[in-house]
Amino acid sequence: MVDQWVRKSPAMFTRAAKVVAFPATCVGLVVLAGCYQYALTSFEAVTPGTEIRVTLSSEKVLEMEPLLGRLLPQLEGEMLERRADALLLAVPQLQAGGSVAPSTRLRQRFWFEEQDLIRLETKTLNRRRTGILMSVTGALVGYTLYWALGGGAVDTDEPPGSENGGVTPFRPIFGGISFR
């Protein structure tokens, strides 16, 4: 029995790879939809510890270019402190390639005055998108496991019906009805 599994395993893994490709693509597309959204807010409504996205004025973008290494009209980060007319924003530090560092521990801190900000948005969890994401992901994982494990088929070397002397057993159908 083990020898049969070893001989069939390359074909099984090839089939599993083909079956996994479609759901993996679907999960990637669903993840792109994201679970978070940004909602417009006022300067006074933002509290410390809130994840925010700010859109900077063109003058402030030019002023920030030497500090950031490139022109960035929008910045995302955590608001650490707010004063009467300014807020302190902790932005993930940019690497030389321009991508955001994976660790949020490396952060640059910037003070922005209210007149430097064109738009201020808070990051909130979108429950509907999250529910859809989790439902689709769960369904795709179930689908992948079902087909990767053989699609419900049992692989035996014996012809069908030989285990009962050639008699086809009762097969239950939905609703408790059985057919021979």
Unreliable sequence segments: none
Q: Residue-averaged pLDDT, rounded?
A: 74
User: What is the helix fraction of residues, given as a range?
Assistant: 25-40%
* Distance from first to last alpha carbon: 30 Å
Using only CA atoms, what is the Rg?
A: 28 Å
β-strand number? 8
Strand arrangement across the biggest beta sheet: 1-6-2-3-4-5
Q: Quick one: overall form?
A: elongated
Share in β-strands: 25-35%
Number of contiguous helices: 3
- CATH top-level class of one domain: Mainly Beta
CATH architecture label name of one domain: Roll
Sheet having the most strands: 6 strands, antiparallel
* Broad structural category: alpha+beta
CATH topology value of one domain: SH3 type barrels
The string of secondary-structure elements, in order, is HEEHEEEEHEE
Q: What are the main properties of this structure?
A:
180 residues, SH3 type barrels, two-stranded antiparallel sheet, 3 helices, 8 strands
Explain the overall architecture.
With 180 residues, the protein is of the alpha+beta class. The chain has a domain at 34-125: Roll (SH3 type barrels), CATH 2.30.30. It has three helices and eight strands. The protein has helices spanning 2-33, 58-68, 127-148, and strands at 36-40, 51-56, 74-82, 86-92, 107-113, 117-125, 171-173, 177-179. The strands form two sheets. The chain has a six-stranded antiparallel β-sheet with strand order 1-6-2-3-4-5. A hairpin with a 3-residue loop joins β7 and β8 (177-179). The protein is elongated, with a radius of gyration of 28 Å. The protein starts with a helix and ends with a strand. The model has no long low-confidence stretch (mean pLDDT 74).
